[in-house]
Specification:
The chain has 405 residues and is an alpha+beta fold. The chain has 2 domains: 162 residues, no CATH class; 142 residues, Histidine kinase-like ATPase, C-terminal domain (Heat Shock Protein 90, 2-Layer Sandwich), CATH 3.30.565. 61% of the residues lie in helices and 11% in strands. β4 and β5 form a beta hairpin. The chain is rod-shaped, with a radius of gyration of 44 Å.
Amino acid sequence: MTAFPRPARLPRPHREDVLIAAAGLLGGVLLWALGLHTQGSRGLTGAWVLVPVAALSLMELLRRSAPRTALLVATLALITDQFTEGSVATIAMFTDIVYAAVLYGSPSAARRIPWGTALITVVVTVTAVSWLRSPEGLLLGVVAGAISIAPATTGVLVRNHRDAAEAARLRAEQTALLAEIDRTQAVMAERARMARELHDMVANHLSAIAIHSTAALSLDDARTTKDALTVIRENSVAGLAEMRRLIGLLRDSGDDLSPAPAPTLGALDSLVERARTNGASSGLTFTLQDRRGAGAPLPAPVEMAAYRIVQESLTNALKHAPPGPVTVSLDHSRRALRVEVVSPYGDRPGPRAPGSGAGLVGMRERVALLEGEFEAGPVTADDAAGTKIWRVRAELPVDEGDGTA
């Protein structure tokens, strides 16, 4: 058995539309009962005047859901009203339906209806003047414009205002969404920066503590244990100072706790010396080759990134490198600062600290923020034996006005 689709049901009329329809119908009945009409006796007299009133009151129920149908039926009802004694209720409901057709109809209908009402008004005026050949024809044209052009124009104004308000609301929502996205990105960027700073500042000291504490526990030698404890204490104190500096930067409360300045390349000697002390028991030697020469100071972000790259590279060497030389090289041209850290590569005997790979990620992020170039990994050394080494190389751009040739 073939099943036929059910016809689509019209949506339930809006509460305001029901009230308007009821008021129009009751008003028409009351005017008819009082004998108040808009014109003299025509072909259809008596209760016939209520037919257009009833039709228009029904169309008021469709003024939002089906404005085009309501306008078409309302126009026919208004024409029918001309053959009766006429009712003010019919004219009032017709003007409301014209207004609703522009306000709730499609955009194309909202553009065409005002022009259509203007054309109809002109036709009615010309026809009335030609037929009556008196000023009364102009009066009919004015009435036609009042019940058609005026509500259509009002509907256009209200619709434009509503569309402008909706557009403003959407823009406000988009602005709020973009602001929230910017805020989230700023928070994520700040968290990433804090993570890099915390890792670079503390990892070096904690790695040295882990290595020497493991050595002290695994070797039953009083001198080795004492040396290890000395290194552990020095790194604990230095790590605590770095943590206090970071807390001071985050607090920024304006009290007596003034955060220390960010480290610069001038502190590389101390950094390499500390690494030399921490790596002595592991058979590592550390050398700094600074070929920058004298010149204008580097931008603070470049110095900060270079210092952290060297610091993290030395930490990784302490963690993973077998015995051998570790060389830190700096070279400054007019356009870039080149940083290179070379360390032995291979299996390391004895205690070693675990690594998570976050250091390489942090170095790569620092260089990317400065739009520089970064590479890290095992390469073959330029020697006859073809020794494998681990090389970290970074090129940090420097503005021409900030560097020296």
